Amino acid sequence: MGSGQVTDWQGKNVTVAGLGVSGIPAAKALHGLGANVTVVNDGDDARAREQAAELRALGVTVRLGDGATLPEGTELVVTAPGWKPDKPLFTAAREAGVPVWGDVELAWRLRGPDAAPWLCVTGTNGKTTTTQMLASILKAAGLRTAAVGNIGVSLLDAVLGEERHDVLAVELSSYQLHWAPSLRAHSAAVLNLAPDHLDWHGSMEAYAKDKGRIYEGNRVACVYNVADKATEDLVREADVEEGCRAVGFTLGAPAPSQLGVVDGILVDRAFVENRQKNAQELAEVCDVNPPAPHNIANALAAAALARAFGVPPKAVRDGLRAFTPDAHRIALVADLDGVAYVDDSKATNTHAAEASLAAYESIVWIAGGLAKGATFDELVAGSAKRLRGVVLIGADRALIREALARHAPEVPVVDLDRTDTGAMLAAVQEARRLAVEGDTVLLAPACASMDMFVNYNQRGDAFASAVGELGT
To answer: CA 279 → CA 220, 260, 261, 317, 462, distances in Å?
Structure first.
């Protein structure tokens, strides 16, 4: 199973690692192509047994409670992206000379000869918003497209489904990129790089290397963030096709081969004739929803990828105007007594929280949860002057409290020693007490949610519900 397209799957022994959003479509697709599929899964709970029964009914072998052993005769392993590279299954595969692919790699190999090109997006934060903005712009240009990948729509379904696409807007996580060695995008963007998932990757260097894979073999444009030198470094290190260009995006005035902002206008100096002298207006800052600085950067990155694909300026403006952000991303929940209550539960790491805090002048910050190995000194030091007060919840809140004591000792802090779901109502009540007219009460936890909630969506819903109780 080398690097070329695999055309004959009949009788191939393929092991799929992990049930779930990528494992089940992979198992079904491979079984449908004639492969002998065995699914291995660590868990053996009621949900896993239900999924296993569905696959077994199709003729797929499923082993529950044993994700460590490589089934005999395996010729290829297809893994769920979240499985860590140091798992015994992968060690056994390496020792046996068996390749390991992720769901993205599998989708890439299964594309037909006239498959739609991929415009790919990664980064520590902003991936989903940028990918959705990109899809909105492509649709405004009359192109058949879909936002797929790490975004909820399986790439396998997009590649193997009946629907035809002109181009795909593909969100990719560092996990997915790790397991996708032969992916070659039309154009790709790395939005930013900050420490995240280091427990999975093992080091910042390994994390950055996996993110940088997205640029390998790009044909038209490698889009990078002028304000984040690490993204430009990844472009320099990438082995791209002849003629592929580095295109930067910046919140300042753009240099040639960049997109940026001039007097409230989003401007393109990359995809224009005579870019030394000319610039093309694309949209106004007020066309971006919400027009927070980091979201304008997302819009510029999306615009750069769309322009690399030849989309006209008007489609950029129309696509940005038509775009509505997902829930729990800087969403205004209510305005009570002159205080805005904003839900950015999606800010699950310090980099995302930093962008969120930068969008407001005077903040009562609700933070805390699972730190995932993060430190908070830089975040607190950079945001201290904006903080009216802080309310802390969650398992690792002490780490934030200690950073506040070091860098913002004058800011009042309420430390709620709770990790029950009811803590959110108490946090919102405390935040209301600290806030004055003109402030923003901001849920931007800088931490993952799983110590208290199922996911960040449930955490955001709990915040909105608590704010709703204040207004009654």
So the answer is: 19, 10, 11, 15, 46
Of these ranges, 15-19, 185-189, 368-372, the one predicted with the greatest mean pLDDT is 185-189
User: CA–CA separation, 352 vs 329, rounded Å?
Assistant: 10
Return all residues near 18 (Cβ < 8 A) that are at least 6 apart. 39, 40, 41, 42, 67, 79, 80, 82, 83
Spatial distance between the Cα atoms of 414 and 312, rounded to a whole number of angstroms:
51
Is the backbone peptide bond immediately before 290 cis, with ω within 30 degrees of 0?
yes
The pair of structure tokens assigned to 217 is 């073999």
Q: Which helix (H) or strand (E) holds 209?
A: helix 204-212
- Residues 213-245 have pLDDT tens digits of 999 999 999 999 999 999 999 999 999 999 999
Nearby residues of 454 by Cβ (< 8 Å), 6 or more positions away = none
Q: What's the number of CA atoms in the CB half-sphere (13 Å) around residue 55? A: 30
| The pair of three-digit structure tokens given for residue 434, joined into one six-digit string | 């600290």
In whole numbers, what is the pLDDT of the chain averaged over residues?
A: 91
